[in-house]
Amino acid sequence: MKRLLTLLAVICLASFSAQAQDKTAVKYASTITPQDMKAKLSVLASDDFQGRETGTPGQEKASKFLEDFYQKLGLQAPVDGTYRQKFSMFQSDWSDVYIKTKSGKKVNGKDIIFFGNANMAKELKLATVFVGKGETLDNMDVKGKGVIAMASSREMLEKLNASGAKAVFIISADDEQFTQTLPRQARRALLSRLRFDKVAAADESMVFYITKAIAAEMLNSSADKLEAAASNPASIKPRSVSLKVTEKLKELKTENMVAFLEGTDLKDEVLVISSHFDHIGQNEDGTVINNGADDDGSGTTGVMEIAEAFAQAAKEGNKPRRSILFLNVTGEEKGLLGSEYYSEHPLYPIEKTVNNLNIDMIGRVDPDHENDRDYVYVIGSEKLSSHLKVISEYANITYTGLNLDYRYDDPNDTNRFYYRSDHYNFAKKGIPIIFYFNGVHADYHRPTDTVDKIEFDVMAKRAQLVFHTAWILANRDQRTPVDREDDMTYNR
Ligand SMILES: [Zn+2]
What we know:
elongated, binds zinc ion, 2 domains, 8-stranded mixed beta sheet, Glucose Oxidase, domain 1, Aminopeptidase, 14 helices
């Protein structure tokens, strides 16, 4: 029933569209141009910004660029007179982790792979037993010991996990393959994910992935003998093994960029228009740069253009009724961290935050739309409020005429994009959101995501759609009600 009403409402709105254009809105939307977008994005996605990775000098350049821009627009600086919501994140560096053997130290990321959490001031000497494929594990007491096991079943790993062993060493099934894939694994093993807390985890745990050759050295045996003893591990004598795990804590300072436009009679209510301005950076020596023109230089440029249009309107006496926060978050590529930080430390009360319009990738045309360029994926618009999609449709029919593609709203879609960008941290707090997206393409998260591939005419239309939707949301009498909370129980 509700669906039918919604549909009727859209049809009614559509039939009035020719007369219903708000000339004031059209005037400011027209300041959002392909030329302006190209000028801004060419700076944001230049090599000079080094791929804008969170906490790097390249990102700081992007922060400064945004800061100067918002200042020039005359928008309010809401954090003690600045445009920066600063915070620290932490990361464990596990490069000082090794096992000592006859032939020398076997080091994490070079010879072995370590996953776990511990921090010791000096080397640990550990009585260590070989358990082969673990078939006899049930009858053994390995509490507080080191356990060397051959990679076998998931069941065995679970048993080892529950055994109370102090450290577990897993022998690779294939040494050659282990050595080949080690450089790829090393990245994850050497640096933990960024986190908000200084302390990683409460429990100490140590799992080492090692080659058969290293295991043989640790046990003063040979690879062949270990192989032969897989089901009869008692034939290999226990040994004492020395190892060390040192956690080096890294602190990364970063910030969300924020600029505020105060509304008029409904100024306590805030609409958030967002993008993420971080990206995945460059390789170690700076020879390969991931410029992130589409991801999410395009969304950040969109937010800047929309901010400019609203700021211009305000200067000419056309302030929005509600306030608008322009938000460029950090740490998206590290796990939606900047938006999580904002949603946990909001500058304006969450209950007064009416909507979030989030733009993440609007500069490209995906392979599915090569013959239908004027499109955008609109995601999540009816998850929490039945009104929001209607308003979005109205804005599009009246002003921009794009093909709004809703395929990713299908709860069975395996991409699960609704959960994969910053708007989700607002949705989690019960704030109705819309996520604007052009879909993935061959250059996604690659050094080839560059400005020359951006289709600025389509990108400007998409940003205009966000602007018009924002204009309506900021000026209408009622905020969009949350009338569809049940959808949030969707099984993740
Ligand atoms: Zn992105």
